[in-house]
Fold these 4 entries.
Entry 1:
Amino acid sequence: MIKKKKQNPNTLTAIDLFAGVGGLSLGAARAGFDVTCAVEIDKHAVLTHAANFPNSAHLADDVHALSGEKLLKEAGVSPGTLSGLIGGPPCQGFSAIGLRTAADPRNNLLVDFFRLVSEMKPAFFLAENVPGVLDARNAAVLEKAKSRVPKNYVQLEPLIVKASDYGAPTSRTRVFFYGYDPNRVAVLTHDNFAARDVEDVRVRNALAGLPSIRAKWQSEEQSWRAVGELDDSDFADSVTDRVPFGVGNKDAIARFKEKGEVSGFLGTIHKHSTIKRFDTLGPGEADPVSKCTRLDEDGYCPTLRAGTGPERGSYQAIRPVHPNSPRVISPREGARLQGFPDWFQFHPTKWHAFRQIGNSVSPIVGEYLLRVIHEAMQ
């Protein structure tokens, strides 16, 4: 475990389960929560999360083996005072592109999320998953999970959220389960979470100011490149600034602020035949060999995939083709399309970086939903 600073007793606290690299954590921090602890079993993800959230405690543990008592103790939170339990339990067993089996043992981790709700009794919970979790074949495990919630909690019907409706440049659609203790949180309904007065951000806006990638940029140091300024917009402000207190890698932030340099511009070496095929693709068209689809700069990025972990063969996810160059996108371009700021750090390799990005909740979506909740707790 990586220790953290002492908690401010006047701050609303949150613990992030299945935290990954921290998309939901960043949304929570920007919404005003102190992410006191993150739990993530993937060793690369938890170290990257720690680099971005140096003031949080980090547990590289299996959630199934954690008790609420232990988690509160490690997070430095007194029993009965936790504001929020957030997280995205593994979705592979529920996903439409996975094995889609209700017997997938990872599905039980959804039950564990709600078990910890019952043990820690936070003021609210917010759990994210794929739309497939609502399929009839998953009804039993979902009912088992939700039955663990304390009886006095109000549970909303699942929120189906399309990221592009909330100001992110991706059409990624996910389900959020929200519930709260009515003695500690004001009444909220579906209508409170509906997107309002949100800036429309497209691929063109997301990739603005980024350098032309060279295939030879293969090392971590080569991946640091200067970026151009963006037009005045909410998205630009989110990408370039708005660093929550105690969040961010100080060296990466300093390099960005002082030199305008950002990491993650790793190139991909393609065969000449692949480049030739990519060059002929129109917006939204898929390459018949690689199955990579070309981004439409006037549209939204489709859902970025994470690929598989070592236990499933370590297959790299198919990446989109850049809208104006005959190549797949770099990790930093993927991060922009997912709604991450330029100062946020990812693993220095393409494989792990894209796994971290593809597994993440868009921080733009997370912030919007959690800001609604934060305001209901004031």
Note: The chain has two domains: 13-198+360-376, 203-349.
Entry 2:
Amino acid sequence: MRASFPSPRAGSTCELALVTGVPAFTTTLKTGSPNVLQPDRTAALIAAAMQDNRLTNDGPLVQELESRFAAFQGVKHAVAVANGTLGLQLAAWALGMRGDILMPSFTFIGTAHALAWIGLRPVFCEVSRDTHTLDPQRVVDAVTSATGGILGVHIWGQPCDIESLQRIAKTRGVPLLFDSAHACGSSYRSVRVGGFGDAEVFSLHATKSINGLEGGVVTTNNEDLAERVRLLRNFGFVGEDAVSGIGINAKMNEFSAAMALANLECYDRLFAHDREIHEAYRHGLAGLDGIALQECRPDSRRCDHYAVVSVSETAAIGCEALRRVLAAENVIARRYFFPGCHRLPPYNREHRSLPITDRLCRTVLQLPTGLQLTPEDAAKIAAIVAHACEYADEVEAVLATREDAR
């Protein structure tokens, strides 16, 4: 039998839904809620594709997306694929990556799976405490004779220490690939990411800033590499009946390209909106001990599609307690990337000491962003966080009561 909802303590002025049962939002705000910027434009492009009866196989919308995405990211070549996971696999295969691939554990599990699926071995390295991206010195320390490549991840749109990683890859003579799933529109030293390393892979998944329902784009300034990726994504076909070698079906369809094109056209609008959301969070969270909004490194500019807060041990309330407070208010914040790739099967078979990664997985929360909320909503969420800190003891007591009732 479920316990009754706890009543506020006598004389308490706590207004959190965890105590009162009345959430601040009647509509649930979710981390990663899709942005649909131009539904009519998307529908018109899809209708035209159906009218032309050209739905896939390198159709005109895919070709247009590739051209416009390359221009947007400032690279010579962009190859559209069915999703970012396949993009990573095709790029790694085309680069001839073999053996151990040095990469962070602090990333989405799909990054590691993409490599393991094609027979590569992810070797997890520590990340920087400040940027949450791959620590170049830890990469140097992890290099062995079995190292066959480096994979950096631009987390939260924050570019890696690209220059250092490029120098290491060149010195060691191994390919350098970047997972740029979070980084549409991000820049490193005034240059848009996309052309760094040997190749970069962007995601156009529904949760990303520029989404194509599903989809991905491999970008590079290397013409030969781009051509190899194009062959790989279409079974290796070089003509109607001729095949150059092993390939797979990783083509993007026209409907996904239509959605991505319509959203790409409105990137500036989305960027400005997310910047306002960030400013509201930043202002509302300022001065809270132990709670900080993740900021971009001075030499970089990122898209602000990800609003990430770190909840340190000095905060009045713990990270998991805060997540539950927000959930009661219909605000779904998420722990990223809990518990870390190195602690999930099959990678947890090997013991790896990654204390910074472990700490980040325990203390990082991603808050809702995008067109689902207004700056005023973000300010209200920040106020909830501040209120939770003020009434942390009462929150912990309520949560403890609920745990006892299970």
Note: Residues 299 and 383 are 31 Å apart (CA to CA).
Entry 3:
Amino acid sequence: MHYYKNFLVAIFIASIIFLQGCAGTPVSLGVSDGFDRASYDMENPRKVTASASGFQLLLLIPISINDRHARAYSAIEAQAAGGLIADVRVRESWTYAFVGTIYRTTIEASVYPRK
């Protein structure tokens, strides 16, 4: 009976560790409240796009999946170069591969440059 309890505890701990790999990175998208509208050129936005992908091996092992939103938004911020990011659109797609699935996040946004 003692071995059975230890086995259950080990299974529980292994499950908790395994499920930690399923936690994603939260990302705040777009304009925050309180920005100064007068310091941006709101008439001439430019469109920017960035993508990031991840792979789920054998439909079980995530490889660069959980942070793909953060990686794509970081690329948007780099392209914005200090401009105001607004009108954010997020598109998800996936493609079946022989040994797993490729997940792709594409973020499109309008960037309003500083005056």
Note: The mean pLDDT is 85.
Entry 4:
Amino acid sequence: MDHDSGLRATDALANERTFLAYVRTALAFVAFGYVIARFSLFTQEIAVVAHIVVPRMATTVFGVAMAGMGIAVGLYGGFRYVATDRGLRNRTVVAMPAHVAVVTSVILTAIGTFVAVELLALAHR
């Protein structure tokens, strides 16, 4: 670490902790997507035994989408780490763009809506 750059160890370590939080979140999305997709196979097995029809495609697509979100979160975390590190070395603040917060909120709302609709549909079968 260059002492002349004004970069403090606490700032650099905080940036690393934030990056690790992105990594944990990305792994959670990927793992959750895998579980959802595998649960689809389990529900198909149960449907055969119970003689009911359960649409498989929605759950599989949702699982793949969740895994894709994990990839996107991991990539964005890497981008934010590099941008923040560069900003710290240049003694500037690199805030997250507002549009990223809006897009993230919209995506999370869509995920929540999908889950709620699927749960309601499951309750009415």
Note: The chain has three helices and no strands.
